[in-house]
Amino acid sequence: MLHIVNSNTDPCFNLALEEYFLKQSPVPDDLVILWQNRPTVVIGRNQNADVEINAPFIADSNIQVVRRLSGGGAVYHDLGNLNFTFITNLVGIGHNNFSHFTLPIIAALAELGIKAKFTGRNDLTIDGQKFSGNAQYIHRDRLLHHGTLLFDTDMAILAQALSGSDAKHSKPAVASVRSKVTTIRRHLPPTIMLAEFEAALLKEIFASAAESYRCYELSTADRQAIETLAEKRYRDPEWTYGKLPLYNHNTKKTFAGGSVQVLFNVQNNTLSQCKICGDFFATGDMEELTGNLLGAPYQSDFIAKIVDDWLTVHPIHDISPAEVLSCFFPNSYS
Fold first, then answer.
1. How many CB atoms lie within 10 A of CB 313?
2. Is-contact 27 2, C-beta < 8 A?
3. What's the first-to-final CA gap in the chain, in angstroms?
4. d(CA 106, CA 117)
5. Alpha helices in the chain (DSSP H)
């Protein structure tokens, strides 16, 4: 295992760095990255940005918005938040094995006197309050697992930034968000700072891998490739916000594996436009599925076959084909 040393706080650079080492890594080793972003909202690969974030507050507060490769929900980063990334071979780990990568975090916190647990589909909690969310992305035979660690994040700003659409911008909604999350700092002696926690975590990561510490310094070629990718993808407003024309069908449902929102237009009884959004964890590119659906007759048997066939190969974690189909035909499927 190698520790990639990175002190850059530009979210576009940091997401591009992850993608570069996942897809074009100059070294074959397993990798770990600990990194930070300046104030940023990072939305999941399949989310509709317009309904997940408090856009007016974000603009007024000079908070950046970026979209990551992995699924899951929106998260807030600032310099009181520590992010972690593992890049490893998929063989032996399996799809959606989130708990495997949280073990060294739980162990590091235990060394500092904090009892943390992996709960739900992708969270780490202390006394029932969330302080970490995790997500994954697969490219060929390589797996990227990353997550947030709320060490001393500004919780008031987090709650406002992630309070969603205008209908949710009430004080009770913000208070609800804040009541469900905590910071690591609240559970530590005041003498332990972020740098000490980061060092303890890094030590535990290498100990859990039964390896001696080794690091990797970015080369000039690495930095150039990462900057090119950052400019091409992560600084592109179309990648971040996408194009969402007006749809005449819009259904959103929540299942065990997360929320699914299906938007589509029907012309002459065929699907002419389609978008599938949500905070779910997919194993494939949802744009491939929606591409397969375009031009299909808007009839349950036709749509069901396309959805079933694609999700058999590219399953969504804890969401069945029938549940996805129920968003296309809400009056016919429960």
1. 9
2. yes
3. 47
4. 7
5. 11-23, 49-52, 55-60, 98-111, 155-161, 171-179, 194-208, 220-229, 237-241, 286-293, 300-313, 321-328
Tokens of 180: 């469900």
Could you tell me the pTM of the whole model? 0.90
CA distance 25 to 87: 10
pLDDT of residue 173: 45
- Round to whole Å and give the CA distance between 158 and 75: 8
C-alpha 106 chain-centroid distance: 20
Average pLDDT estimate for 136-147 = 94
What is residue 317's predicted lDDT score, i.e. its pLDDT? 92
Residue 314: CB partners within 8 Å, gap ≥ 6?
A: 282, 283, 284, 285, 288, 289
Domains contained in the chain, CATH given: 2-241 (3.30.930.10), 249-328 (3.30.390.50)
- Rounded CA separation 201/199 (Å): 5
CB 279 within 8 A of CB 73: yes
CB-hemisphere CA count at 13 Å for 48? 19
- Using pLDDT thresholds of 50, 70 and 90, give the confidence band for residue 245: low
Q: What confidence score (pLDDT) does residue 167 get?
A: 39
Beta bridge partners of 40: 64, 77
| Residue 78 pLDDT greater than 80, yes or no | yes
Q: Is 252 helix (H, G, I), strand (E, B) or coil?
A: strand
Q: Decide if 2 contacts 202 (C-beta within 8 A).
A: no
Q: What is the DSSP string of 133-202?
A: EEEEEEETTEEEEEEEEESS--HHHHHHHTS-SGGG-SHHHHHHHHHTB--GGGGS-TT--HHHHHHHHH
User: Which residue's structure tokens are 């989310």?
Assistant: 47
Over range 106-126, report the average pLDDT: 94
Q: Is 54:61 a contact under the CB 8 Å cutoff? A: no
The vertex-297 CA angle with 260 and 267, nearest 5°, equals 85
The residue assigned the tokens 């969270």 is 123
